[in-house]
Amino acid sequence: MSGADPAPPAAGHDKDRQDRGTAIRRAVLGDAHVDRAEAARTDFDAPFQDLITQAAWGTVWASDGISLRERSMLTLALLAAMGNFDEIPMHIRATARTGASQRDVLECFQHVAIYCGVPKANHALKIARQTYADMEDGG
Description:
Elements: H1 15-29, H2 31-40, H3 46-60, H4 68-82, H5 88-98, H6 102-116, H7 118-136
Helix pairs in contact: 1-2, 1-3, 4-5, 4-6, 5-7, 6-7
């Protein structure tokens, strides 16, 4: 948005939580992913980006209540259960850093099949298979 004043920090902006969120996000998704996302950031969506960095990454993912492996599994199951398939590839790629194995992912999607529906789990498995294949090919 050229010519527009930069958006001020979101209400409740917390620099410590922002820094912690950025560090966790980089640890889970990798520097290349975060660098691409930051390069695409605009004045328009900056408050939203700060919100998810602070809330999702700096609070939820940064909590030491459960491991990153378990968070990865929960995230994949919830994405599939809610039919939010667009973020599944990103989180499948993240399993290489969080320690969730392909077996763990299969177990998650089996739970989704039983508790939320076979079509959702089947579609999530299709996406996971393709993403793992892409990862093996270097993509």
